[in-house]
Design a protein that fits this description.
Keywords: Signal. This protein has 77 residues and is mainly alpha-helical. It is elongated, with a radius of gyration of 35 Å. 0% of the residues are buried.
Length: 77
Amino acid sequence: MKKTLLFGLLAASMTLSVTSCNNPDIKRDEDIVDQPLPPIPAAPDTTGGKKAPENPATREINAVNATEDIKKMQPVM
């Protein structure tokens, strides 16, 4: 009898928990409207149209630039 009572209480608690998860105040898909996102604005030009000075730290690493750097490091004879 105890096992039957235990299973009955378990079934009742699961039934109550399943029915309590549903909120009738929330409408499912009725209020959802598909709208495209607004376009991303262009980044502001903070340089005033001036070109950035050459900075060796931000220069592209490639064979030509590496060769130039090696030539600059060697002593001139």
